[in-house]
Amino acid sequence: MQHYTGDDLREAVEYLRGAWGRHPFEDLVDPVLPLAAADEALALAAAGGAFRVGVDPRR
After folding, report:
1. What is the pLDDT of residues 21-54, one digit of tens each?
2. Which among 29, 19, 20, 21 has a CA at the least distance from the CA of 50?
3. What does residue 34 show for φ and ψ, rounded to 5 degrees?
4. How far apart are the first and last CA of the chain?
5. Which of 5, 12, 13, 35 could form a disulfide with 57 if both were Cys (CB 3.0 to 4.6 A apart)?
6. 36 in Cβ contact with 56 (< 8 Å)
7. C-alpha dihedral over 6, 58, 26, 51, to 10 degrees?
């Protein structure tokens, strides 16, 4: 089991902040479901039917 630290998260966010325009990250997430459908998103992710499942708390 791998454990991540706050530094790991900070480095990941910094990378994404600088790389979002160079890489099509949004193309890697499909479907994107509203927060109310979090259980469905988890089930889809566990089933392996999608590469990445997103949850958008704004929806």
Report:
1. 888 878 889 999 999 999 999 999 999 878 899 9
2. 29
3. -70, 160
4. 32
5. 35
6. no
7. 80
pTM of the model: 0.61
Q: How far apart are CA 30 and CA 16, in angstroms?
A: 18
Q: CA 26 to CA 53: how far, in whole Å?
A: 11
The 3 state secondary structure assigned to the chain is CCCCCHHHHHHHHHHHHHHCCCCCHHHHCCCEEEHHHHHHHHHHHHHCCCCCCEEECCC
